[in-house]
């Protein structure tokens, strides 16, 4: 039976698409069950009609032979056995239909549970996305401020470390000069005061004098 909503026919390989599809399948099973019950009732009435009644037996008339009644008795027994077999077959079909209906009902309940879970998950995702989109500018500003503060702290630490390193180098140079006996001597040359430095008794060449020396000794 084709669904009026989704215009699709149910098959064992194709799952239900909507509630109308499942209802249509159940309707077919219900019709089959009702048809089986009607057949069962008709067979029951036929069996009751075929069985001998519990009333008083009629007196056989003289001259009536039992051989004339045997074909009718055999036919009645055959009808009873055939009716009983049909009833058993109908009951078996009813049990199969009921089992199929139970399986379909379980599948429908499982599908509904899965749909409910998917809807809940989708609603939660939408809620999380809405919260994230709503708080995104605030979080971005807070993150930017935190990064800027971190950069300022690093710059301050770097400047402090650089100043301490320079002071340590000055101190080490001064201590090394004192250990090696750095001395300063002033003298006048050409009306100008010159400062000469010696360390361990060895004079330190003034770099400004190198230019004049290079002029006297060209390449």
Automatic annotation (TrEMBL):
Pfam family membership, one: ATG14
Sequence ranges of Polar residues compositional bias: 63-78
Annotated region (Disordered), positions in chain: 45-78
An example Gene Ontology CC term for this record: protein-containing complex
Coiled coil: 80-114
Keywords: Coiled coil
InterPro entries: UV_resistance/autophagy_Atg14 (IPR018791)
Keyword Iron-sulfur annotated: no
Family from the record: Belongs to the ATG14 family.
Protein name: Autophagy-related protein 14
Organism: Trichoglossum hirsutum
Organism lineage string: Eukaryota, Fungi, Dikarya, Ascomycota, Pezizomycotina
